Amino acid sequence: MTDLQRKYNLNHLRELESESMFIMREVAAQFERPALLFSGGKDSIVMVHLAKKAFWPAKIPFPLMHIDTGHNFIETMIFRDELVEKLGVQLIVGSVQEAIDTGRVVEETGFEASRNLLQTVTLLDAIARHKIDCALGGGRRDEEKARAKERFFSHRDEFGQWDPKNQRPELWNIFNGKKRVGEHFRVFPLSNWTEMDIWQYIYLENIDIPSLYFTHERQVFVRDGVILADAPFMKKRDAEKVTTMRIRCRTIGDISCTGLSRSEASTLEDIIREIAALRVTERGSRADDLRSESAMEDRKKEGYF
Amino acid sequence: MELLRFTTAGSVDDGKSTLIGRLLYDSKSIFEDQLEAVKRASIRKGNEVINLALLTDGLRAEREQGITIDVAYRYFATPKRKFIIADTPGHVQYTRNMVTGASTANAAIILIDARNGVTEQTYRHSYIASLLQIPHLIVCVNKMDLVNYSEEVYERIKADFSAFAAKLAVMDIRFVPISALIGDNVVVKTDKMPWYGGGTLRYILENIHVAGDHNRIDPRFPVQYVIRPISDKYHDYRGYAGRVAGGVFRRNEKVMVLPSGFITTLESIDMDEQVIDEAFPPMSVTFRLSDDLDISRGDMIVRENNVPEIGQDIEVMMCWMSEKPMAAGNKYYLRHTTTEVRAMIKEIIYKVDVNTLERVPDGQELRMNEIARVQLRTTKPLFFDSYRRNRTTGSLILIDEGTFNTVGVGMIV
User: Fold this and answer.
1) What's the CA gap between A305 and A160, in Å, rounded?
2) Which of A46, A232, B77, B136 has the fewest CB atoms inside 10 Å of its own CB, making it the most exposed?
3) Which ipTM value was assigned to this complex?
4) B409 touching A, CB under 8 A?
């Protein structure tokens, strides 16, 4: 390679960053009322960081939208509120608790009960109520095999549903966000990122993340080999005894379905080293994905994230 | 680390899934829970060996029917590079999917079964790769174990392919004899073909020069979005956000804005809070100009002595993606860089038989998966280059006016 070629070359993180910024700007240009789905997890935090870069020095030109199951880690909520304050953006909250209270949805019962599925109804309701025509999501194609077939610009019909067999062709970097009234789009700027890319980028850009990602002591119990955090609403079988472990979150979601991992990683460098050596995918410990081989595809068709 | 995007094309029996499985597995990119899931599914379906195809088939219908429906993207990394694979199926909707996968690829892997040699399918794959201007072709002669690792067989296939490839516009073609099943020359060099002096497939993928794949000659900056902060601190700020599509832009140089033709100075190139000196593809940046001009999305910033073609009559190689055929006289929305206009089909000049590369003078209508040279007329002028010169300013899509589906994709001749 000549010096000239080396000089005009981006490394993989900068190329991914540029691609994602391009997508964010396409969304701002092509849609009237977009919103960025924010869960408080690392992927949505990276999304916010990229949006900030894409529109600097203007503020991010769309609100953040949090679908709140009511079963959150308190650390996530504090982090969310501080971030919103710092950016000066609007926060829209769609509450699963409210949907339960008003009878829109019925809560699952039993030991495996999770509010994960109920989020879909709340998400679609929030999209309709706020007339959101494009929801930006942090989904990545490396996460799950149904996601590997998802477009950057993913069309949803008037019922919020995804038709995986009939997706629009997507070529070069020309994105077709044209839609009819009542339809909306889900757009995934991080499609081409892997878990490792996310961590390397957080390290490179020195992005703040919730303390849950680093090692800490927590009251936990083990179910089917998955370590879960204890909380008042978590129903436990007799054999499931609560103990204290040093753990960290590899992903952050609703408490009821976030598997924790034993870890001593206390810095970003530690986490990157740990990820490099891991032999299980991050969704391997998500209780929601272990339900069946098509769990993700089925939820996505219904309108899930 | 650099990023390399490549496509793999092939049909059910040529070992494509095995090859991808091998690349991922030997690069330690398959995780234990994924492998366990595939093992469970293989046993349930009565397969005797682990079926690595189950790893890549993402949708329920695909697993049930044992087919691949759509382009799937896979990721793996070696210490040298990060790779994105656009894995395209080889059955009915083949052309449409391969065109999609090829549109962003730096390299294409063409698989040839050593027992069958160069076939019609090889022609088709290679033609599409060259039509989409994939800069690098890697021809894998697979199943070498089934021809006793014969140098003669390999050399004959290589000669056959080279003779055919002379008709194609591909600059860089490599050959590698492999056995995806056994793993010969995929990631690990085999000792069974001492007559082969080249590198393994992974070595080739890791060492192809991708730095030269972008156009660094003709400065092109399609304006994507205008940034006007409403704040006291930046209230005079007016920035033009976009992704550099060609050439190198430098701060303080003269630039020209299209369509107005105004000449001004590129005062600043902003990237977040930093000001940078140069911008080149595929960087996303924000330009500030020294004059206050009326510029909006769809305009293009170029250099005075290097302007793109400007016109409303455009000839393209068109691949049709929709079940509803295209015919002369039809009207569509047309998207090109950050512009949208309307376009009318003036003429289907000729069709290309993708199996023989022959021109077919069948000009009535263009059906799904067919490719033709087509003449278009747009309602407003486009600023474009030939696709061969620039894949970003040379590509366009057509959108159905009723369904808003993407129905056709074109490469400007």
Assistant:
1) 11
2) A232
3) 0.91
4) yes
